[in-house]
Amino acid sequence: MKKAKRLLSIVLAALMLCSVFAAAPITASAETSGDYEYDVLDDGTAEITGYTGSGGAVVIPSELDGYTVTSIDEAFRGCESLTSVTIPGSVTSIGWGAFEECESLTSVTIPDSVTSIGGHAFDNTAYYNDESNWENDVLYIGNHLIKAKSSISDDYTIKSGTKTIAGEAFYYCTSLTSVTIPDSVKSIGDHAFGYYYDYDSDVTRKVNGFIIYGYSGTAAENYAGKNGFTFVDLATNPTTEPTTESVEPITEVTEPTSDNPTEPVITEPVSESFEPTETPTDASTTGPQTTQQAVKTKKANTITVSAKTKTVKLKKLKKKAQKVKAITVKSAQGKVSYKLVKKGSTAKIFKLAKINSKGVITIKKWKKAKKGTYKIKVKVTAAGNASYKKGEKTVTVKVKIK
After folding, report:
1. Residues 6+ apart with CB under 8 A from 31
2. Alpha carbon distance, N-terminus to C-terminus of the chain
3. Do residues 346 and 372 lie in contact, with contact meaning Cβ atoms separated by under 8 Å?
4. How many other CB atoms are there within 10 angstroms of residue 216's CB atom?
5. Does residue 367 surpass a pLDDT of 50?
6. N or C: which end of the chain has fewer CB within 10 A?
7. Residue 30 contacts residue 368 (beta carbons within 8 Å)
8. How many CB atoms lie under 10 A from the CB of residue 16?
9. What residues contact 177, with CB distance under 8 A and at least 6 apart?
10. CA-to-CA separations, 284 to 260, 279, 281, 321, in angstroms, rounded
11. Which residues pair with 59 in a beta bridge?
12. What's the CA gap between 359 and 350, in Å, rounded?
């Protein structure tokens, strides 16, 4: 009887031990191959997640340890020594901020195999900051539209042959009301257009009445449907397509007169030449006249901002990205923006961090994270206004991983 009880106890203990191992999560660690760190995705391909090389001219390999490279995450973000990069034809996706802050990056080659580009992928690179690379305030790299300046307004026509439109490409174009998209476009990123950031309310808003002109069955129609925008099929409504052709001068239509309030008055175009008119003079207006214009001096923009120390759980950070809200702006004049600063930041965490327009820092999933205190420098900029100058202040966010 005792032997039977002892045997039963051993069996129960074994079952409990098996259940513990079964419940324990199995987390694959990041792989390393040469200068690259990568994850193996569910489809058996590789996503580059880190770069430890010396920079210079880099040709990204199409394979790592036998795995086909199909995706590039934020692997190169902040790599100041990178001067040029060639992306292989195996890659289909370039992630959010993948090459952001690569301040020496002057040359980028993106193959047509790429069908998805995240927002801010090439922001503040040497290529991005070179005005000669912009075409009428829009930045293209090869057949891929990367970014548009806020000056783009009314309707914009994507140039023929474009394959991809990056996420948030027209995000700051608050006066853009419609876009015409050729059927060559195969992919449109999140919030590419039809949205803008309302700095006063600190929220993302849709542009009322935004219209997308394109062709049925293409990425243009899919984006319009997904985001609830009006879609106009150019194949069936060709006359509605916005035109950029020059037009003949037209007559000017003025408001109705009080004598005939129901009918507008049509006036002929005014000639540019005119006869000077005589100005009556008197004793007070004869002699030299001096015009004085008051010059308003802008005040200093004093930014009051604080940064707290935040704690992140090590186990959680190893499993997924963690958000850190540590910055509070108490007073500032004008639009406030945020930028991570490499100098003074802990190098390891800087490469994994990004900050949004609200000042919230996201630390990417870090499988090799270790306990400790890490620093992230953030430059807070207030754009100023008619009364105040532009102002800047740098703060340090401390992140405790434990």
Report:
1. 37, 38, 39, 40, 46, 64, 65
2. 50
3. no
4. 12
5. yes
6. N
7. yes
8. 9
9. 153, 154, 155, 207, 209, 210, 211
10. 41, 13, 8, 75
11. 86
12. 15
Position 391 confidence tier, pLDDT thresholds 50, 70, 90: confident
In this prediction, residue 199 carries a pLDDT of 67
Query: Is residue 77 classed as helix, strand or coil in its secondary structure?
Result: coil
Check if the beta carbon of residue 116 is closer than 8 Å to that of residue 146. Answer: no
Has residue 230 got a pLDDT over 90? yes
pLDDT 10s digits, 128-144: 999 999 998 999 999 99
Give pairs for 199-204: CB < 8 Å, separation 24+. Answer: 199/335, 199/336, 202/358
Does the pLDDT value for residue 280 go beyond 70?
no
Task: Count CB-CB contacts under 10 A for residue 82.
Answer: 25
Structural domains in the chain plus CATH codes: 31-240 (3.80.10.10), 304-401 (2.60.40.10)
Instruction: Give how far Cα 141 sits from Cα of 162, 176, 222, 224, 234, Å.
Output: 10, 22, 23, 24, 26
Q: Which residue do the tokens 């394979």 mark?
A: 63
φ, ψ of residue 179 to 5 degrees: the values are -140, 140
Classify 146 as helix, strand or coil. strand
Strands 372-382 and 336-341, bridge-based pairing: antiparallel
Question: What is the CA 3 to chain-centroid distance, rounded?
Answer: 70
Q: Identify the DSSP state of 240.
A: G
CA–chain centroid gap for 328, Å, is 22
Return the SS3 of 117: strand
Strand partners of residue 376: 397
